[in-house]
Amino acid sequence: MATRIDEEYQQLKRQVHAYLVERLDEEGVEVERTEKSKLDAFVQVNVAQYINTHRIPLAASDQSMLARETMDEIVGYGPLEPLLADGQINDILLNGPRSVFVEVAGVLQKAHTRFIDDEHVMRIIRRVLAPLGRRLDESSPMVDARLPDGSRVNAIIPPIALDGPSISIRKFTNKHLTASDLVNRGSMTRECLDLLISIVQGRRNLLVSGGTGTGKTTILNMLSQYLPKDERIVTIEDSAELQLEHPHIVRLETRPANAEGSGRISARELVINALRMRPDRVIVGEVRSGEIIELLQAMNTGHEGSMSTIHANTSKDALIRIETLLAVNGYDAGERAIGRLISSSLDVIVQLARLPSGRRLVSEIVALTPTKDDPYLSRTLYRAKELSEVEA
């Protein structure tokens, strides 16, 4: 019964939205140039008029909700609007019109949000992409984009996505966790924080490693407040998420190819260019391709204290992943030479983890202490109490 009622409401929502679009066109209302308060009043009046004209039995609270959701359809991102406005939600994952999940405090849970159908989802995706001039169709079925507030969006559509169009949103926030916040939340101990501060101020090259959603960017943002203020910092990112607390910073962002397939600027090109900008430190948001070659060489040739993140579940996995990235991106050298490059460039790996409860924490900090026979010999500087107890 509840399913049928919901289907009827979604159908009503579709009809009201179509009616409002017609009324806006008839009245010559330009949505982008009209004050939100006037637009809101216009929507409420016309929703009420539609309900009365068609004699639809609808409670006042439901009519109010219908007007609000119709407003979101016209000026915002439809059903995503309440989720984007909810400060507790970190990620929004839409797996089709009737399957929406959100991550709250590190735990995924299903949301009550739903779309009418696949076309409804596509309409919202087009609205995200319209100001960016980006393309999404059968010939180019995947796209990365960014909302005006900085939130990162990935969209993928059929035929690649078998169950309908899918959207993944990593929300951007200006409320970055401080070192005290991380200590109070149990993400690290005071001992761990003091160690990280000494690593940063000691100009040691640092790699933050972790799986999805472990807080790699959060740690980089936190560490930035301990960078000496007289240094020049250059950052390179695929999607600008770092909000470094520093007075002298130059932010660079990659650019994807345009609809004609040209104009792409890769992270590797930006790292090469960054080294011509007289940086004291280079910070790469995440290494995932050929930029690893230039970053390691920068770390090894006078840019001590540089930092980056990498997607890996352990510090050993991080080293293996770097080896793989070097190999697949044309770094033509033997195994020993690759080992020497990595060990002479990197000083410290900070490994992050996410517990089943959703809590994120610094699981360990290891320092590379290479020898002639073992370039990856390491020494554990810190290990989280939780992990030590599990191993014991």
Task: Describe, in plain words, how this protein is organized in 3D.
The protein is of the alpha/beta class. The protein has three domains: 75 residues, no CATH class; 99 residues, Beta-Lactamase (2-Layer Sandwich); 213 residues, P-loop containing nucleotide triphosphate hydrolases (Rossmann fold), CATH 3.40.50. The strands form two sheets. The protein has an eight-stranded mixed sheet, sandwiched between helices. It has a six-stranded antiparallel sheet with strand order 3-2-1-6-5-4. The longest helix is centred in the N-terminal third of the chain and has 26 residues. It is elongated and about 85 Å long. The termini are far apart. The model has no long low-confidence stretch (mean pLDDT 87).
Write the layout of secondary structure elements.
Blueprint: H1 2-27, H2 36-53, H3 60-75, H4 80-85, E1 89-94, E2 100-104, E3 107-110, H5 118-129, E4 142-146, E5 152-156, E6 166-170, H6 179-184, H7 190-201, E7 206-210, H8 216-224, E8 233-237, E9 249-253, H9 267-274, E10 281-284, H10 291-299, E11 307-311, H11 315-328, H12 335-345, E12 348-354, E13 360-368, E14 378-383, H13 385-391
Parallel strand pairs: 7-11, 7-12, 8-9, 8-10, 10-11
Antiparallel strand pairs: 1-2, 1-6, 2-3, 4-5, 5-6, 12-13, 13-14
Helix pairs in contact: 1-2, 1-3, 2-3, 9-10
Structural class assignment: alpha/beta
Number of discrete helical segments: 13
- Looking across the biggest beta sheet, what order are the strands in? 9-8-10-11-7-12-13-14
Order of helices and strands: HHHHEEEHEEEHHEHEEHEHEHHEEEH
Strand content: 15-25%
